[in-house]
Design a protein that fits this description.
The complex is a heterodimer of chains A (about 375) and B (about 180). Chain A is an alpha+beta fold and about 375 residues long. Chain A has 14 helices and 11 strands. Chain B has about 180 residues and is of the alpha/beta class. The radius of gyration of chain B is 17 Å and the shape is globular. The chains are: A alpha+beta (about 375), B alpha/beta (about 180). At the A-B interface, helix 1, helix 2, strand 2, helix 3 and helix 7 of A face helix 3 and helix 4 of B.
Chain lengths: ~375, ~180
Amino acid sequence: MSTPTETLDPDAAQAAIEHCYDQGWSDGLPVVPATQPLVDDFVAAAGRPADEVIGRSPQVDRTVTVELAAINAVMAGCRPEYFPVVLAAWEALMRERATNGGGWQSTSGPAPLIIVNGPIRNVIGLNSAGGAFGPGFRANATISRAIGLIVRNVYGIQPHGLEQATQGLPGRWQICFGENEEESPWAPLAEELGVPGDAVTTTLLRTCEYVDNRHTPDPEQLLYDFADTIGRSGAWIFKHAMAGVVFCPEHAQLLASAGYSRADVAAFLSENAGRTTGQLARAGKDFANDFGVRFPGTAEDPDAFQRTMPPADPKRMIIAVAGARNAGISMVVRYFADWSGTPVPIRAAADAASAAPASAAATG
Amino acid sequence: MPNAILDPTGRTVVEESEPATVRAPRRGALTGARVGLLDNTKHNAMLFLQEVGRLLVDEHGADEVSIVETKRSFSVPVDDEIVARYRKSADVVVTGVGDCGSCSAAAVADGINFEKAGVPAAVVLTDAFTTTGHMMAQVQGAPGYEWITTEHPVAVLDEEQVRERARRLLPQIVETLTAGGEQ
């Protein structure tokens, strides 16, 4: 469906966009002004009641409803058929300990990592191949942006106000991609965690760091390269720090053909990512008790190896596959806190109708 | 008539009135007062608070430090249950040290909650979080609420420096907990 261009009114569009800037509703880029008919289409696509409460922040005393989420998704540039993905991503984020605490306000300025599995990737044109971390694809760019606009507008958590990011990080509100199931040697991430089909897996990230290794056919050498990046001292605050890996197809296939499952990769990295006490002492981070932050200790036993991550657990380490099969370039994704380990199924209106016919009928 | 542009915030605009605040009644002095300390878990906060508590007892006639708790989540304001516990066990509360994004905002909300419950509170934030403190005071409906500000950062100070900081802020803390009260 497209509108004949001669009936479009760019001057009206520009004025409406400027109005939204004037209200403080934008993250800096132009937003799509939301109107009731379009918002109704979004709510209908999700098949959920407009007034259903989907989030609450006790510290700022604000509540998110399906309709408010829809307004912000419209403004982010989503299409109605993306909205069930936005809602699933939001629900998955609400399961994170950090988003119910101070995550959105933090000096760390963490970014949601949103990974989508299932056929819906192809239905909505969500990129999972080359350039998965962006930019260039409407679904990827706008679904993640919608989450940011909900936090900004509904919770009122804005930079220089309740949002206190010291530097923030590149990619905040921009990291959303499909898992490259077609070229992954492993089962889809969400399916392996018990949610087959269309689903979102997410956590808050402190940063993403590339590992470029086109140097070895040896799986252990490859994994030691990841272990080194995961182990750097700068990322350590508490006793442990947590990270996952978004492998490119080439790395994933190399590991899988050598017999490595996701759990094997997690076990190897958990065991081998870290630094010696002596190395950590140089950075004033060699001592940690079970609760507080690290601080300078006595550096006894300088050769003792301290592991970055807690003992391996497949529910702790996100191991996904995305990107093009054209080079050995993967991304370590470093968590802001921890990860719920629970993907959320994506439910569109048709699913909602079969699950709950009465409420779907009520919302049209 | 074109469609209206929808507001994405879900909030109704409140007319700015004069900066309201909330303040529990004070006694003019701390003599015999029971002091409550609420640690927000941030590094050096407990050491700072305990030194303040000691000085209030040793030098300002407070009876004792009667309740010391550590927040379970530094970023979430205290709930009614915690406030009730402090109201029962303490006459005044000192809390902080807000030196991060969410914990500073939450500490301001804590102070407002204690004052609402009738317990005078001294809240300490570092000067890096003044704006977020004001934003939270507005959210809590007490835009005029005041707290004590100290230089950022506190987390990297050594033990002696923390004690010195407590000593330096002591007059302001005493003033906050007693000003306007009857002797």
